[in-house]
Protein 1
Amino acid sequence: MDFNLSDEQQMLRDAANRYVREKGGFEHRRAPQAHWAAYAEMGWLALAVPEADGGLGCGFVETAIIAEELGRGLVLEPYVGCAVLATRLVERADAKAFAARRAELLQQLAEGRVQIALAHADPQSRFEIDAQSTCARAEGSGFVLDGVKLMVPAAGSAGAFIVSAAVDAGEPALFLVPREAVTLHPYPLIDGTHGGDVELRSVFVPAEARLSAPGSGLALLEEALDRAALAQVAEALGCMEAVLEITADYLKTREQFGQPIGRFQALQHRMSEMFVEVQETRSILYRGIAHLDAAPADRRRAVSATKVMLGSAGRFVGGQGIQLHGGIGMTEEYPIGHYYKRLLVLEKLYGDSEWHLSRFVEANRG
């Protein structure tokens, strides 16, 4: 794998960095604006959409570049949940009845005209992909869905949901459900984003709403979730780099005993340890990207190792950032504490460290 960015990829990174610095960032986050249309205009929402469907047909490296820069700017918009996860599920939808809607929906996603969220976690499923208590039963010309989905990221802004459900108490399948058909219970998360629980009570959807063909739902879902998990590690990497930069600047300007506190050797050691954690996260992210299209067992092993690294490195870098700032690190007006909260949320989404560690062990046994 070539770790150097091409000229086009470097231009993409520079453009994303400039946009986030000028129009995103912490100050703008406290006075949120509608950035989604701008993301679509700059082509960020079309990166993962195939050229044949009107997208840019880029690889995952471009997606990771955008996710990292958005993490650096601590943005609120659901780029990973919609432009990575939902777009991948729609792109790979293989049910014949859904084919007529697939191209239209991809176009809408690429142009930012609709946001779609995956509603997947059932009560007590603990991140297990095939532990579905939400059920779908065939009825007439479609399906009737019943169940509750917990902790759906960006549920409030979604115009539709992709819902996972066990068909006739059997295999998992995916269904496109309009926002109007469900009962939504939204709530704020600790990092400033919003999630929600989605309640489905005898929701009827036509047969054309089923995305996955019989027998393919589980593999389709797992592959898309792995891509989302890797994109979130890229976003977390951007958060950690920002913490490192902000903390280094603070140590250069904060003075005690007549000199900047960054001259104290103990604090330099702390910064060195934070730097190592960030670089290790970047290295293992590259490894994960290199195995993204490998056989499922190899992909699981690489992605889970990457997500576990995010958990430990995120807590260390974010926590040390607060420690080195002293009391100011805990104030609402200063960004360090918000980066820490965002890192905590990223660690929990799409499988927490404990679950991914177990999956890594299982993959090695296999």
Protein 2
Amino acid sequence: MNSEVKDTRKFLVTPSPHLKAPFNVKMVMYIVVIALLPALGGAIHFFGFYSLWLVLVSVATAVLAEFLANLAFKRPLETCLDGSAIITGMLLAYNLPPTAPLWMPVVGSAFAIIIVKALFGGLGHNFLNPALAGRAFLMASWPGKMTSGWILREGLGTTSGIQVDVFSGATPLGVVQKLKDISDSALAETTKSALNDPSMLKSLFFGNVGGVLGETSVLLLLIPAIILIAIRVIDWRIPLAYLGTVALGTLIAWLFKATPVTPIFHLLSGGLMLGALFMATDYATTPVTPLGLWIFGIGCGVLTVLIRLWGGYPEGVSYSILLMNVVTPFIDRYTRPRILGESAAKKERK
């Protein structure tokens, strides 16, 4: 009798859908948190222990804001520790200059969690990436503090990587932006050569240049991201489409002399890697269809190239992703796969 019951349990029938994921939401969030830790270590190494304080304050504010929002909207309080608020706090801090005052991550994280996430229903219901929206809010409110204060650990050279006094306070992408206004042709040519020098590309890859906390070292972002892609926490389509589009767009621009630096420089500089690998891949704010993921990534790449080459900011990654977040519902609508047996005419009527 007991053996019959035991056998029945082996063939338990459950309703569809019969999908099984290796990780639940909480596990995914904490895996991403772990993947972001090498970049935190790099920030402490390059800019000092004040970087750690900025990140801790940002994370604490994000978790507290999530807790208060859950309390106000009568949602489960324990979700403030599901890891999503921690990721938002970390990414918001990673977009700050290393000398930002401590009140900036407090304001940015509170805005990201309460305004961008909680007011729209919480995790999975926000249509913008909270960390990027928080950064955009800080950039619009205090542009001076968000675009200055670049430092580098003593002994690592200048923040721009170029031994010219006029560029000592600029990041590498800031130098590219300043090249447009230089009238001294000899200085412009020297600087252009320095930007494309292999030693500069090496500094960009390892992180020996100025920038915001989490974007300077490509190496410390790339290795964890490859692991996340391998275990399918990150879908490979958006990073590949995003980085590929930037590489192709800047290659064409470089061949036609629309940019003074090579595609490799564009790929390694600024927040492109941080954005393409850890922000553009946010589950809640990106398309769900395979074709939609390609369109989203290509759109981010095109906008980034346009802003970097002809926009007012030297960067462009944050605004590119936010703009594509806005059109994500339309992408999903027009890239929805046809249901088996559904005719094209019937789909069109829907």
Protein 3
Amino acid sequence: MNLTGAEILTEVLLEQGVDTIFGYPGGAVLNIYDTLYDYQDRITHILTAHEQGASHAADGYARATGKTGVVLATSGPGATNLVTGIATAYMDSIPMVAITGNVSTSLLGRDSFQEIYITGITMPITKHNFLVRDVEELADTIRSAFRIANSGRKGPVLIDIPKDITAAKCEFVKKEQILIKKQSKKNRDQIEKVSEIINEAKRPVIYFGGGVSLGDASKELKQFINKSGIPAVHTMMGAGVLCHDDIHNLGLIGMHGKSSTNNVISDADVVIAIGARFSDRVALNPKYFAQKATIIQLDIDQSEINKNVYVDYGVVGDVKDILNDLYPRIKENQQSEWMKKIQVWQDKDYKPVDSDTVLKPHQIIRILCEMSEKNTVYVTDVGQHQMWAAQYLEHLEPRCFITSGGLGTMGFGYGAAIGAKFGVMNEKRVIHITGDGSFHMNLNEACTAKTYELPIITIIMNNSVLGMVRQWQTSFYKKKYSHTDPQRKTDFMKVAEGFGVKGYRASNPKEFEAVLKEALEQKGPVWIECLIDKDEKVLPMIPAGGTIDDMIMD
């Protein structure tokens, strides 16, 4: 077949199993959009309000489904508007292919209208990027992008396509979808050694992160835990891998983790890190992290071994394969004495106090869990509400808690919720939890949710301040609230009405229950503004660079 570059792009997307993409048109991608018009029965294009929203939507789609998210934008500002979304995906190892248009090859490097050197800009935040200068190379470049995005440690790949390449023609030959072959190293000696250490441990703990769900290894982790009896703590990105009421699931670790989980790490004699990278939100002071323990790290990325914390044994490979190799070598154990000691710490964990007259964040989360379907996908923005969601949501399964962990992107939530909803469509409900600060950043995506009548419920925890930064100012800056009380006059109910979205407001638990019940029955997008006190804090908290001895409990 003799096809244009735009047609080749579309054919290869179909080849790779892509049926949904997110984007925003512009001059440099007009040929691609013209072709998408003809392919609309096979590829659904979702038009967002802004390219950043499109990139977060592609990200949310990938996190909810395990597929590769695809986003399309024009040159210049369209391309640069993707940068935050690409960086967000990069930090959390999310497979994404970002396609940008550019000026024609004859205009490259001439400061042409809407020209930008997007491959240079995105070099540090992509696994790889391409500038296509020959239509003959286009098809295989796109195939390579999907292979790179999904192999090894996953992540975003960018393809920049000049406009004349999308118009040029060449012969196109269809190929089968690329199936990624895992190339795990054989670690027989290391597996034998670490299994001996695990079997001899008296106070072992598993510390796992998002790499377990990205590696589709939650089933293997559960089998390993059930046999070994080893308790587990998790990062924010690991939420949902183990069910919230699993006796071995001790909960969140790190800056806003439980005091018990941080005590477990401090007292453990063996720590088994699985798909986790010892970020500065977990190993706040690497010098004092798990000082009594032999540390074993299982990770697909060699560069993560010894990067943040020195480990005694690093096993590199697919965590699913490593857990399968370890399983037969691990002895059955109940860890009874160790679990009794942990129970004593758990009895002293921070417990928030309920109220009947005002809305407390933990009560909002509890009511959400009680009234929503158990398999609901929760998507958050970034700030205090994100941490309350991580702490109190009753996580049941992987891919049901979607949040920006590494980059901490305020404004991530609404776009990601839209992408997640297109991913799970009629199978699961999507609830978006945000704060008034985060929501102000990208609430324009309400028009997208309304256009497609997506039944996404947005919970706005409105404390009228930039809560997390203000909390730091309270604790570490002598209550000098510099620019964290913006005195905004936004009436979220009127804004909702302007977008055509149903809006509710609640100021106490009974009101919230009543409006949530109505919201759950709506067919399209809904906002619920929850009024909370500006002095609410995320507790407990270990200050940056601190240890468990520095934990703040009130």
